[in-house]
Design a protein that fits this description.
Length: 102
């Protein structure tokens, strides 16, 4: 009976190691994917914002004003993120917990 319990414990530990390895590898792959996606998206958004700022500036007759308008838009977004930071942090934490509990 003791031998069966030892074998069961050993098999259970191996299973837990495999599950932990799977979750770690899936999580790592997801993190790399998100980082790559974020990098390309950030570069695209940067170029798009410069283009929009120059376009607005061209229509206003002063490129500085166009870039200023785009900057003010991002300042407003920054302030909104600060205001709603607790909600954002809680929702991200809940998503991570849900992922780890799958």
């Amino acid at each position: 009976m003791i031998e069966i319990l030892k074998e069961y414990t050993t098999k259970r530990l191996e299973l837990l190691k495999l599950v932990a390895t799977e979750k770690t590898s899936v999580g790592s792959g997801f993190i790399v994917f998100v980082l790559l996606l974020f990098s390309f998206a950030a570069f695209f958004v940067l170029m798009l914002n410069i283009a929009v700022g120059l376009l607005i500036g061209h229509s206003l007759g002063n490129y500085g004003y166009g870039l200023l308008i785009v900057s003010v838009f991002y300042l407003i977004l920054f302030i909104l993120v600060i205001i709603f930071r607790r909600f954002i942090m809680k929702s991200v934490a809940n998503k991570i917990i849900d992922f780890l509990n799958e």
